[in-house]
GTP cyclohydrolase FolE2 (Pseudoalteromonas issachenkonii), 306 residues
Amino acid sequence: MQTNMPDIADTAPALQTGKLDWVGMGEIELPFIFESRDLSPVTVNAKARAFVNLHKEDAKGIHMSRLFLALDLLSTEQQVNPQTIAQALDTFITSHEGLSDKAQIEFKFELPLRRKSLLSGKAGWKSYPVVLTSTIENNVISYELTVDVTYSSTCPCSAALARQLIQNAFNEKFNQETLSQKDVHEWLGTTQGIVATPHSQRSIANVKVKLDSNIQEFDVVTLINTLEAELKTPVQAAVKREDEQEFARLNGQNLMFCEDAARKIKALLEANNYSDYWLQINHYESLHAHDAVAIAVKGIKGGYKA
Ligand SMILES: Nc1nc2c(ncn2[C@@H]2O[C@H](COP(=O)(O)OP(=O)(O)OP(=O)(O)O)[C@@H](O)[C@H]2O)c(=O)[nH]1
């Protein structure tokens, strides 16, 4: 290796002096083995962002290769968990002595999970977008976990309007007739019996929670499972007809506006004692070409903002 290469990060004058909040790299390709409770260690293909602050006002720049190589170690020689992320953050700071006293790593990846069908006992893969952000400041680490949960939402307004049409059709059909249970039963099984159906839409809950700084392990599966259990109509992987019928029943029994979904999840996160959270509910409408959106935060001082 050539020994006299210029190292401008150390020696060149800054064009203009001043502190910077974050300097680093985005979109770093980083496969790694992710560890989380109730999950066999799983290889994920993450995109990483790695940052330190630059508090030395006249320093030309940070040493990006040092951040990159610390991440590479995480990818090739370790498994990703709170301990190894803490080590990488520590390396970010110690390798920037005099330059930086804050560091941040963000991982964005899809977590594949085996999901069971509703009734038929089959199973299939479903991928969940995850963002894990870890920050060290004043020697304290904080972790934020964001997951996206996709579900189906059936419009309560549309359901009520459809029911009215069904009642009207019933009146027309059976106006003068003595009702026979058999006739009504048969009629209900026809398209004319259920003359209107409410619209439903694919919907996504984006949920960000702040984790305790002293956690020993991540627990993404529990967060996803709890959210899906609360929403009741998560999109399905393996589906046989009996599963589809159960899904139709669940949709009919869990009609919701985006406000309903947001309130349910807010109450759930409160009950689970997260120190802070942010959520955005997106109903990708099938009635409209635009979306219905609801946002909520815990609302603590200095916490997440809506
Ligand atoms: N600070 C900084 N570096 C950049 C930027 N864009 C590219 N780089 C490159 O990042 C590379 C790595 O920088 P350093 O970490 O200082 O590399 P190095 O001097 O070989 O590593 P050390 O010997 O550990 O200091 C350099 O080749 C820079 O040119 C930028 O906008 N800012």
